[in-house]
Amino acid sequence: MTTGLSLSAAELIDRYRRKDLSPVEVTREVLDGIDRLNAGVNAFCLVDGERAMAAARASEARWQRSEPCGLVDGVPATIKDLVLTRGWPTLRASRVTDPDQAWDQDAPVTARLRAQGAILLGKTNTPEFGWKGVTDSALAGITRNPWDLDRTPGGSSGGAAAACALGLGALHVGTDGGGSIRIPAGFSGVFGHKPTFGRVPAWPLSPFGTLSHVGPITRTVSDAALMLTVIAAPDARDWHALPADGRDYREGLDDGVRGLRIAYSPNLGYAAVHPEVASIVQRAVEVFAALGAHVEEVPGPFDSPAETFRVHWYAGAANLLDGFTDRQRAQIDEGLQRVAGEGARFTIARYLDAMNERGALGERMCRFHQDWDLLLTPSLPIPAFEAGCEHPDAATYGGWQDWTPFTYPFNLTQQPACSAPCGFTKAGLPVGLQIVAAKYADALVLRAARAFEQAQPFVMPRGTG
């Protein structure tokens, strides 16, 4: 009987409490699943079965005493290979990272999960330094989509999303600087939530600065709410971290969307959307109206902020590579080198202008949410494309930002946004619905996603539960 690969974190905790399932059984089954399935998808760059089993045995002993140490005691979890994890190298998918280091510190999100009893399985793949929207690197290889191994799962949290879809862990840490949680969630058919910036503390700060968020990738909205409750605690090392609000994000999760004012923008006024994706998302939006929300299609709430984002992202890449020698830079992904080269040509005056443009966009969305509780869009304008490629068509797309027009604007504005699975193309590829709310309204995003999930349950790949 499938257990560890099919049960949600909430279900696992309930079974542990009833003592009819053990963290040792679950962890062993998940590790067996990794042995069987990871060769096909390449979701993990590190698996530490010995430490995972030791943690599972300790968790089992606590549950036998009815003394769990936290909300996720005994739940298998993964950490993206951009996030520090004590005892494991964090190579950031780069050949220039020296593996011979102490590796003696946890990032805040890792520390919170560990303290609350999560079973850390290993590190998940990312592109080098998380710089692009797909997951491949010279160090870690190509990560593939569980729904079609010839396709990309997206990125940069592609390893986390692929592992999640296959049930290789219930809780997965992702990061999102321009869509890196929502892109792979959309392509891989799982749930990904980018919290309000600062809600989940991050340390060290991303090379891409205040664009980058840390958040959960899970199979269910309830698990994301549980995980956010665990990881949304301030850390003195992150001076951007928001004050603790003491919130349990599971409370009010089932309150529905009746009476909410929901705006739907099928293309944000500037994005070209694949017809099949547009049709699937349109049907998903109709679910919210059927659930009692007031839903209205609106024109794009802002002009394309692509150039504003490009200045921020490319300048961050330039600053990152500036810290390496010429010999090291020669070993770095050629695409990242190109982006950094363009970023190095921006003047300080242009960068400051981009900061002002970002502020104006943030203000515009604050005003927008005075009239609308939520904004719905596609997560992505296209289905997943060929694995190992940065973009689906070199003649149409100049870089990954060109095919992610719905995600990166909300990194600029730092709003909470999620991608929820909402259907499949005729070729069987997942499509995602993006739900966006005003800053700090993470609970509302999760509540709306949960209402949609209850009305249209998420479907995972066959054989994984």
Summary tags:
single chain, about 475 residues, alpha/beta, Amidase signature (AS) enzymes, eleven-stranded mixed sheet, two-stranded antiparallel sheet, 14 helices, 13 strands, about 35% helix, about 15% strand
Strand content: 5-15%
Query: H/E series, N to C?
Result: HHEHEHEEEHEHEEHEHEHHHHEHEEH
Main sheet attributes: strand count, strand direction, barrel closure: 11 strands, mixed
Q: Identify the CATH homologous superfamily.
A: Amidase signature (AS) domain
CATH topology-level name: Amidase signature (AS) enzymes
Report the helical percentage: 25-40%
CATH architecture type = Alpha-Beta Complex
- Radius of gyration from the CA trace? 21 Å
Count the beta strands: 13
Summed over residues and divided by their number, the pLDDT gives a mean of 97
Which term fits the overall shape? globular
Give the CA-CA distance, first to last residue: 10 Å
Could you name the ranges where pLDDT drops below 50 across 5 or more consecutive residues? none
| Count of alpha/pi helices | 14
Which CATH class? Alpha Beta
Strand order of the largest sheet: 1-3-2-6-8-7-12-13-11-9-10
| Number of individual domains | 1
From the helix content, strand content and strand pairing, which structural class follows? alpha/beta
